[in-house]
């Protein structure tokens, strides 16, 4: 039910109460003054406060962009509303009010324990700024862009477009990998020659982005390399792919070589850009192009159609040698 309909229903109920108070003959049971002071006035005040609360929350949610500010305003308004409800309960009878409040506290804590944990976890995520809306993260085995952080759920849209709603408690208590950040990588991190060239070329650009309060996203993927691939020749093999995505994202991808036993190795690929949505858009095609460049001969083995131009040139060069 839309909020406007709720407001209309409560307003109609308020009008009905006022009409009954003015025209219904109940003087034989209770005087109009006692009815107004003890019962009707607190009820009407609570209805008006509820209508005002609903309107203000609607305005806050539609106008305020800051997640923390919106959360604090919502909590403050709801606490004020709860105070009016407690005043209403104690207006009828103090002993009755105390019993009702105690019962409600126990019932709510038992019934809505998971909901309360989600609200507390959501508040901690927002206040500690573990991540923000628009960041590319991985948690609970899900990679994607954070679309919303509500008091109950964190919404993450995966690379394939599926929207996941994860309870805040599950997210807060799990490992979170952030691909989007505001700070520079660790200076002590080992860098390859490709990475050093990247830092020299784009260091000032990244520093300017961070100084303006913007973020940068580094999506990391590790792939195994077969023994027939020479690690020293990776730069030449991947140059065309890296140039293509440098034009698309504004930053040249980089890689690290991870040597293992028995002459095998893996490479850590980093796709870098300012907009996480572009990273998500091009991540799969980037990995596809990298694998094609590394294993183009195996991909087109027994291929009956026309070979790609670059593969034909490579075969001709090997034949001449």
Question: Could you characterize the architecture of this molecule?
Answer:
- The chain has helices at 3-23, 32-63, 67-92, 94-111, 113-128, 168-172, 193-211, 234-249, 276-294, 296-299, 309-320; strands spanning 136-139, 142-149, 153-158, 163-167, 176-178, 180-181, 216-225, 254-259, 265-273.
- The protein has 321 residues and is an alpha+beta fold.
- The chain folds into three domains: 3-111, no CATH class; 131-178, SH3 type barrels; 181-316, GMP Synthetase, Chain A, domain 3.
- A five-stranded antiparallel sheet has the order 4-3-2-1-5, sandwiched between helices. Strands 6-7-9-8 form a four-stranded antiparallel sheet.
- A hairpin with a 4-residue loop joins strand 3 and strand 4.
- Mean pLDDT is 76; it is low at 185-194 and 315-321.
Write a brief structural summary.
This protein has 321 residues and is an alpha+beta fold.
Give the SSE layout.
Layout: H1 3-23, H2 32-63, H3 67-92, H4 94-111, H5 113-128, E1 136-139, E2 142-149, E3 153-158, E4 163-167, H6 168-172, E5 176-178, E6 180-181, H7 193-211, E7 216-225, H8 234-249, E8 254-259, E9 265-273, H9 276-294, H10 296-299, H11 309-320
Antiparallel strand pairs: 1-2, 1-5, 2-3, 3-4, 6-7, 7-9, 8-9
Helix pairs in contact: 1-2, 2-3, 3-4, 8-9
Query: In CATH terms, what is the architecture of the largest domain?
Result: 2-Layer Sandwich
- Looking at CATH, which topology of the largest domain would you report? GMP Synthetase, Chain A, domain 3
The total number of structural domains is 3
Q: Which structural class matches the secondary elements?
A: alpha+beta
Overall outline? elongated
Strand order of the largest sheet: 4-3-2-1-5
Mean pLDDT: 76
First and last CA, distance: 76 Å
Question: Radius of gyration, Cα only, in angstroms?
Answer: 31 Å
Q: State the helicity in percent bands.
A: 55-70%
| Total of DSSP H or I helical runs spanning 4+ residues | 11
